[in-house]
Amino acid sequence: MGNTPTSQSTRTICVTSGKGGVGKTTLSVNLGLAMAAEGHKVVLLDGDLGLANINVQLGISPEYNIMDVVKGRKTLAQIVCHTPFGMDFIAGGTGIPQLANLGEADQTAFMDAMGSLTGYDVMIIDTGAGIGANVIRFVLAADDIVVVTTPEPTAMTDAYGIVKTIALSRPKPPITLLINRAASEKHAQQVVSRLTAVTKRFMSGLSLELLGHVPIDPLIEKSIYQQRPHILVNPNAKSVALIRAAAKRILDPDYQTPVTGLSGFFQRVMSFVSDR
Ligand SMILES: Nc1ncnc2c1ncn2[C@@H]1O[C@H](COP(=O)(O)OP(=O)(O)O)[C@@H](O)[C@H]1O
Ligand SMILES: [Mg+2]
Protein backbone atom coordinates (compact mmCIF):
# COMPACT_ATOMS: atom_id res chain seq x y z
CA MET A 1 0.00 0.00 0.00
CA GLY A 2 1.14 3.55 -0.66
CA ASN A 3 1.63 6.34 1.80
CA THR A 4 -1.24 7.50 3.94
CA PRO A 5 -2.75 10.54 2.22
CA THR A 6 -2.50 13.89 3.96
CA SER A 7 -4.67 16.92 3.22
CA GLN A 8 -1.84 17.95 0.89
CA SER A 9 -2.31 14.94 -1.33
CA THR A 10 -6.09 15.07 -1.76
CA ARG A 11 -7.17 15.53 -5.37
CA THR A 12 -10.11 17.93 -5.67
CA ILE A 13 -12.55 17.23 -8.49
CA CYS A 14 -15.35 19.71 -9.08
CA VAL A 15 -18.43 18.44 -10.91
CA THR A 16 -20.40 21.24 -12.49
CA SER A 17 -22.72 22.11 -15.38
CA GLY A 18 -24.33 25.01 -17.15
CA LYS A 19 -27.86 23.68 -17.00
CA GLY A 20 -29.55 22.06 -14.00
CA GLY A 21 -30.88 18.52 -13.99
CA VAL A 22 -28.23 17.11 -16.31
CA GLY A 23 -27.03 14.51 -13.80
CA LYS A 24 -24.27 16.17 -11.72
CA THR A 25 -25.40 14.79 -8.40
CA THR A 26 -26.14 11.33 -9.74
CA LEU A 27 -22.76 11.15 -11.44
CA SER A 28 -20.85 12.67 -8.49
CA VAL A 29 -22.30 10.08 -6.14
CA ASN A 30 -21.68 7.16 -8.47
CA LEU A 31 -18.22 8.29 -9.61
CA GLY A 32 -17.24 8.63 -5.96
CA LEU A 33 -18.51 5.16 -5.16
CA ALA A 34 -16.70 3.75 -8.20
CA MET A 35 -13.45 5.28 -6.94
CA ALA A 36 -14.11 3.98 -3.43
CA ALA A 37 -14.65 0.50 -4.85
CA GLU A 38 -11.19 0.74 -6.42
CA GLY A 39 -9.69 1.36 -2.98
CA HIS A 40 -9.49 5.17 -3.07
CA LYS A 41 -10.51 7.09 0.03
CA VAL A 42 -13.22 9.46 -1.17
CA VAL A 43 -15.14 12.31 0.44
CA LEU A 44 -18.03 13.96 -1.35
CA LEU A 45 -18.76 17.60 -0.58
CA ASP A 46 -22.24 18.84 -1.35
CA GLY A 47 -21.63 22.32 -2.67
CA ASP A 48 -25.13 22.80 -4.04
CA LEU A 49 -26.96 25.26 -1.85
CA GLY A 50 -30.35 25.04 -3.39
CA LEU A 51 -30.94 21.35 -3.67
CA ALA A 52 -29.02 19.31 -1.16
CA ASN A 53 -29.91 16.07 -2.79
CA ILE A 54 -26.82 14.00 -2.26
CA ASN A 55 -28.36 13.05 1.08
CA VAL A 56 -31.46 11.94 -0.76
CA GLN A 57 -29.48 9.80 -3.18
CA LEU A 58 -27.46 8.25 -0.39
CA GLY A 59 -30.48 7.90 1.88
CA ILE A 60 -28.81 9.73 4.77
CA SER A 61 -29.63 12.99 6.49
CA PRO A 62 -26.68 14.89 7.93
CA GLU A 63 -27.43 16.96 11.02
CA TYR A 64 -24.61 19.44 10.61
CA ASN A 65 -22.85 21.25 7.81
CA ILE A 66 -19.77 23.35 7.13
CA MET A 67 -21.34 26.35 8.84
CA ASP A 68 -21.18 24.50 12.16
CA VAL A 69 -17.43 24.19 11.69
CA VAL A 70 -17.01 27.81 10.67
CA LYS A 71 -18.89 28.92 13.77
CA GLY A 72 -16.89 26.59 15.99
CA ARG A 73 -19.95 24.62 17.04
CA LYS A 74 -18.61 21.36 15.66
CA THR A 75 -15.27 19.97 14.64
CA LEU A 76 -14.79 18.83 11.10
CA ALA A 77 -14.65 15.23 12.28
CA GLN A 78 -18.12 15.70 13.75
CA ILE A 79 -19.72 16.82 10.50
CA VAL A 80 -18.21 14.14 8.26
CA CYS A 81 -20.85 11.50 7.55
CA HIS A 82 -19.52 8.01 7.15
CA THR A 83 -21.89 6.34 4.74
CA PRO A 84 -22.38 2.58 4.69
CA PHE A 85 -21.01 2.60 1.14
CA GLY A 86 -17.31 3.19 1.83
CA MET A 87 -17.41 6.88 0.90
CA ASP A 88 -17.66 9.83 3.26
CA PHE A 89 -19.88 12.84 2.79
CA ILE A 90 -19.88 16.46 3.96
CA ALA A 91 -22.91 18.73 3.69
CA GLY A 92 -21.95 22.23 2.63
CA GLY A 93 -25.32 23.72 3.46
CA THR A 94 -25.53 27.36 4.43
CA GLY A 95 -21.80 27.30 5.18
CA ILE A 96 -20.88 27.57 1.52
CA PRO A 97 -21.95 31.19 0.83
CA GLN A 98 -20.81 32.17 4.31
CA LEU A 99 -17.23 31.28 3.37
CA ALA A 100 -17.25 34.47 1.35
CA ASN A 101 -17.93 36.66 4.36
CA LEU A 102 -15.65 35.27 7.03
CA GLY A 103 -13.44 37.58 9.01
CA GLU A 104 -9.74 36.82 9.13
CA ALA A 105 -9.89 34.90 12.41
CA ASP A 106 -12.77 32.74 11.18
CA GLN A 107 -10.96 32.14 7.90
CA THR A 108 -7.89 30.96 9.75
CA ALA A 109 -9.99 28.71 11.96
CA PHE A 110 -11.73 27.29 8.95
CA MET A 111 -8.49 26.68 7.10
CA ASP A 112 -7.05 24.93 10.13
CA ALA A 113 -10.13 22.75 10.29
CA MET A 114 -9.89 21.89 6.60
CA GLY A 115 -6.20 21.16 6.95
CA SER A 116 -7.14 18.52 9.51
CA LEU A 117 -9.26 16.70 6.94
CA THR A 118 -6.64 14.11 6.12
CA GLY A 119 -6.70 10.61 4.84
CA TYR A 120 -8.55 11.24 1.59
CA ASP A 121 -7.23 10.58 -1.89
CA VAL A 122 -10.09 12.42 -3.52
CA MET A 123 -12.64 15.10 -2.68
CA ILE A 124 -15.48 15.37 -5.18
CA ILE A 125 -17.40 18.64 -5.03
CA ASP A 126 -20.92 18.50 -6.42
CA THR A 127 -21.95 22.04 -7.30
CA GLY A 128 -25.16 23.70 -8.32
CA ALA A 129 -25.71 24.55 -11.97
CA GLY A 130 -24.69 27.77 -13.62
CA ILE A 131 -22.23 30.54 -13.18
CA GLY A 132 -23.11 31.89 -9.75
CA ALA A 133 -20.30 33.09 -7.49
CA ASN A 134 -20.62 30.08 -5.23
CA VAL A 135 -20.12 27.66 -8.05
CA ILE A 136 -17.38 29.49 -9.84
CA ARG A 137 -14.97 29.67 -6.93
CA PHE A 138 -15.09 25.91 -6.46
CA VAL A 139 -14.59 25.46 -10.15
CA LEU A 140 -11.65 27.82 -10.25
CA ALA A 141 -10.00 26.25 -7.21
CA ALA A 142 -10.25 22.54 -8.07
CA ASP A 143 -7.54 20.31 -9.52
CA ASP A 144 -10.01 18.90 -12.04
CA ILE A 145 -13.24 20.27 -13.45
CA VAL A 146 -15.79 17.86 -14.81
CA VAL A 147 -18.42 19.65 -16.86
CA VAL A 148 -21.51 17.50 -17.22
CA THR A 149 -23.83 18.05 -20.15
CA THR A 150 -26.39 16.13 -22.12
CA PRO A 151 -26.59 16.24 -25.93
CA GLU A 152 -29.69 18.45 -25.69
CA PRO A 153 -29.10 21.79 -27.46
CA THR A 154 -30.11 23.84 -24.40
CA ALA A 155 -27.73 21.89 -22.15
CA MET A 156 -24.94 22.30 -24.69
CA THR A 157 -25.51 26.04 -24.97
CA ASP A 158 -25.28 26.32 -21.19
CA ALA A 159 -22.22 24.04 -21.10
CA TYR A 160 -20.58 26.38 -23.60
CA GLY A 161 -21.46 29.29 -21.30
CA ILE A 162 -19.81 27.77 -18.26
CA VAL A 163 -16.74 26.59 -20.19
CA LYS A 164 -16.32 30.12 -21.50
CA THR A 165 -16.62 31.66 -18.05
CA ILE A 166 -14.11 29.21 -16.63
CA ALA A 167 -11.67 29.71 -19.48
CA LEU A 168 -11.83 33.49 -19.16
CA SER A 169 -10.92 33.31 -15.45
CA ARG A 170 -8.50 30.42 -15.37
CA PRO A 171 -5.70 29.87 -17.85
CA LYS A 172 -5.49 26.34 -19.25
CA PRO A 173 -8.45 25.12 -17.22
CA PRO A 174 -8.33 21.38 -16.48
CA ILE A 175 -11.80 20.72 -17.94
CA THR A 176 -13.07 17.34 -19.03
CA LEU A 177 -16.53 16.67 -20.36
CA LEU A 178 -18.83 13.97 -19.12
CA ILE A 179 -21.73 13.49 -21.51
CA ASN A 180 -24.79 12.14 -19.78
CA ARG A 181 -27.75 10.64 -21.63
CA ALA A 182 -25.57 9.98 -24.69
CA ALA A 183 -26.58 7.12 -26.95
CA SER A 184 -23.01 5.99 -27.64
CA GLU A 185 -19.40 7.06 -27.41
CA LYS A 186 -19.65 8.34 -30.97
CA HIS A 187 -22.64 10.45 -29.97
CA ALA A 188 -20.67 11.82 -27.00
CA GLN A 189 -17.69 12.61 -29.25
CA GLN A 190 -20.00 14.56 -31.54
CA VAL A 191 -21.12 16.66 -28.57
CA VAL A 192 -17.48 17.34 -27.68
CA SER A 193 -16.64 18.25 -31.29
CA ARG A 194 -19.55 20.65 -31.51
CA LEU A 195 -18.58 22.32 -28.25
CA THR A 196 -14.95 22.51 -29.32
CA ALA A 197 -15.96 24.13 -32.59
CA VAL A 198 -17.53 27.05 -30.73
CA THR A 199 -15.03 27.34 -27.87
CA LYS A 200 -12.18 27.55 -30.39
CA ARG A 201 -13.53 30.91 -31.48
CA PHE A 202 -12.63 32.58 -28.24
CA MET A 203 -9.97 30.30 -26.80
CA SER A 204 -7.64 28.82 -29.34
CA GLY A 205 -5.54 27.03 -26.72
CA LEU A 206 -8.46 25.39 -24.98
CA SER A 207 -8.75 21.67 -25.53
CA LEU A 208 -11.87 19.93 -24.32
CA GLU A 209 -11.49 16.23 -23.70
CA LEU A 210 -14.15 13.61 -23.33
CA LEU A 211 -13.93 12.00 -19.90
CA GLY A 212 -16.71 9.59 -20.68
CA HIS A 213 -20.37 9.14 -21.41
CA VAL A 214 -23.35 7.54 -19.73
CA PRO A 215 -26.47 6.41 -21.59
CA ILE A 216 -30.03 7.00 -20.51
CA ASP A 217 -30.78 4.20 -18.09
CA PRO A 218 -34.19 3.82 -16.43
CA LEU A 219 -32.42 1.94 -13.61
CA ILE A 220 -30.76 5.23 -12.62
CA GLU A 221 -34.12 6.86 -12.05
CA LYS A 222 -35.33 3.80 -10.21
CA SER A 223 -32.29 3.71 -7.90
CA ILE A 224 -32.97 7.31 -6.92
CA TYR A 225 -36.49 6.41 -5.88
CA GLN A 226 -35.03 3.56 -3.84
CA GLN A 227 -32.45 5.93 -2.34
CA ARG A 228 -29.79 3.34 -3.07
CA PRO A 229 -26.87 4.29 -5.32
CA HIS A 230 -27.21 2.95 -8.85
CA ILE A 231 -23.69 1.52 -8.97
CA LEU A 232 -24.42 -0.61 -5.91
CA VAL A 233 -27.88 -1.87 -6.83
CA ASN A 234 -27.22 -2.43 -10.52
CA PRO A 235 -23.56 -3.45 -10.67
CA ASN A 236 -23.92 -5.18 -14.02
CA ALA A 237 -25.61 -2.35 -15.89
CA LYS A 238 -23.79 -0.98 -18.92
CA SER A 239 -24.17 2.53 -17.53
CA VAL A 240 -22.32 1.39 -14.40
CA ALA A 241 -19.41 0.02 -16.47
CA LEU A 242 -19.21 3.41 -18.19
CA ILE A 243 -19.29 5.30 -14.89
CA ARG A 244 -16.49 3.07 -13.60
CA ALA A 245 -14.48 3.75 -16.75
CA ALA A 246 -14.86 7.52 -16.30
CA ALA A 247 -13.83 7.25 -12.64
CA LYS A 248 -10.76 5.28 -13.61
CA ARG A 249 -9.85 7.68 -16.36
CA ILE A 250 -9.88 10.78 -14.19
CA LEU A 251 -7.51 9.10 -11.73
CA ASP A 252 -5.33 7.56 -14.42
CA PRO A 253 -1.72 8.46 -13.60
CA ASP A 254 -1.04 9.04 -17.31
CA TYR A 255 -3.63 11.80 -17.59
CA GLN A 256 -3.59 13.23 -14.10
CA THR A 257 -3.44 16.94 -13.47
CA PRO A 258 -1.25 18.00 -10.52
CA VAL A 259 -2.74 17.69 -7.04
CA THR A 260 -2.72 20.82 -4.94
CA GLY A 261 -4.37 19.48 -1.79
CA LEU A 262 -7.23 20.58 0.40
CA SER A 263 -5.54 23.50 2.15
CA GLY A 264 -4.63 25.04 -1.19
CA PHE A 265 -8.08 24.33 -2.51
CA PHE A 266 -9.97 26.05 0.30
CA GLN A 267 -7.50 28.90 0.37
CA ARG A 268 -8.26 29.53 -3.30
CA VAL A 269 -12.00 29.14 -2.70
CA MET A 270 -11.83 31.97 -0.19
CA SER A 271 -9.36 34.16 -2.02
CA PHE A 272 -11.46 34.21 -5.18
CA VAL A 273 -14.22 35.54 -3.06
CA SER A 274 -12.33 38.28 -1.29
CA ASP A 275 -10.91 39.47 -4.62
CA ARG A 276 -14.38 40.48 -5.74
N1 LIG B 1 -28.18 8.62 -17.42
C1 LIG B 1 -29.38 8.81 -16.88
N2 LIG B 1 -30.44 8.05 -17.25
C2 LIG B 1 -31.65 8.23 -16.71
N3 LIG B 1 -31.93 9.14 -15.77
C3 LIG B 1 -30.92 9.95 -15.35
C4 LIG B 1 -29.61 9.81 -15.88
N4 LIG B 1 -28.80 10.72 -15.26
C5 LIG B 1 -29.60 11.40 -14.40
N5 LIG B 1 -30.87 10.94 -14.45
C6 LIG B 1 -32.02 11.47 -13.71
O1 LIG B 1 -32.07 12.88 -13.93
C7 LIG B 1 -32.50 13.55 -12.76
C8 LIG B 1 -31.58 14.72 -12.47
O2 LIG B 1 -30.31 14.23 -12.09
P1 LIG B 1 -29.41 14.99 -11.02
O3 LIG B 1 -28.21 14.14 -10.81
O4 LIG B 1 -30.19 15.36 -9.81
O5 LIG B 1 -29.02 16.30 -11.84
P2 LIG B 1 -28.29 17.64 -11.34
O6 LIG B 1 -27.53 17.32 -10.10
O7 LIG B 1 -27.41 18.01 -12.49
O8 LIG B 1 -29.36 18.66 -11.13
C9 LIG B 1 -32.53 12.52 -11.64
O9 LIG B 1 -33.85 12.25 -11.32
C10 LIG B 1 -31.86 11.30 -12.22
O10 LIG B 1 -32.55 10.15 -11.84
MG1 LIG C 1 -27.57 18.27 -8.19
Short description:
The protein is α/β, with parallel strands linked by helices and 276 residues long. Helix content is 45%, strand content 15%.
Largest sheet, in brief, is: 8 strands, mixed
The general outline is: globular
Q: What would CATH call the architecture?
A: 3-Layer(aba) Sandwich
CATH class value: Alpha Beta
Hetero compounds? adenosine-5'-diphosphate, magnesium ion
The percent of residues in helical segments reads 40-55%
Question: Can you tell me the CATH topology?
Answer: Rossmann fold
Q: What's the number of domains?
A: 1
Structural class: alpha/beta
In the predicted model, the low-confidence regions spanning at least 5 consecutive residues are none
C-alpha Rg, in Å?
A: 18 Å
> How many separate helices?
13
Q: What order do the SSEs take from the amino end to the carboxyl end, as H and E?
A: EHEHHHEEHHEHEHEHEHHHH
What proportion of the residues form beta strands (DSSP E)? Answer: 15-25%
Number of strands: 8
- Please, what is the CATH homologous superfamily? P-loop containing nucleotide triphosphate hydrolases
